[in-house]
Specification:
The chain is α/β, with parallel strands linked by helices. Helix content is 42%, strand content 20%. Strand 4, helix 4 and strand 5 form a beta-alpha-beta unit.
Length: 188
């Protein structure tokens, strides 16, 4: 199984901290799963110009191909101005319409205010659905107060992060089993 952790912003530390926790959990509890962290701050990605993702080279080509090759994607994003960052939207724009077909997608949102908890519902989930991704049932919303010195200090958040990881793995395995059973019906 290949899992991509997509850090959807080039600034800030809270989303990065959350995804580093996810990455460490995978490494410690699920060492057989291949996990790739795509921290957009480490890549030079141009704005989407509408061409096919296979035509992009360099960082844009690497990031899009890595997402396309994944079985599951965990998107981490902060909330800026009551919206997702432009860097994350640009990644969605670089990918084809059905880029998330047969992929499980989970969401981790960080925000400075509890008033932004619906950003995942109103902005991220519709994009993932449009791109044919299979969403995990719930997402993790982390507020400013849940962090201290670049660490998550709320045990409930850590529990929910662990559950999100388990749900991502379980749903990915279930969908693979369903696809394999369906293909076996063809008999060739």
């Amino acid at each position: 199984m290949k899992v991509v952790l997509l850090q959807g912003s080039i600034v800030g530390s809270k989303t990065r901290t959350a995804l580093q926790y996810v990455q460490t959990t995978f490494k410690d509890k699920y060492p057989d799963i291949e996990v790739t962290m795509l921290d957009l701050a480490q890549y030079d990605i141009p704005f989407s110009d509408g061409r096919n993702y296979l035509e992009y080279t360099g960082d844009a080509g690497y990031v899009t191909q890595t997402i396309m090759d994944a079985d599951a994607v965990i998107i981490g994003t902060p909330v800026f101005q009551a919206s997702i960052p432009a860097t994350l939207k640009n990644i969605f724009d670089l990918l084809p319409e059905q880029a998330l077909l047969n992929k499980v997608v989970s969401i981790v949102v960080t925000a400075g205010s509890p008033k932004h908890y619906l950003i995942a519902e109103t902005q991220i989930k519709p994009i993932i659905s449009y791109m044919k991704g299979q969403l995990t049932q719930s997402y993790v919303f982390i507020e400013e107060k849940d962090f201290h010195r670049k660490e998550i200090v709320n045990d409930d958040i850590l529990f929910r992060m662990d559950r999100l990881i388990e749900d991502t793995i379980t749903l990915t395995n279930a969908l693979e089993d369903i696809r394999a059973a369906k293909e076996a019906e063809y008999g060739f």
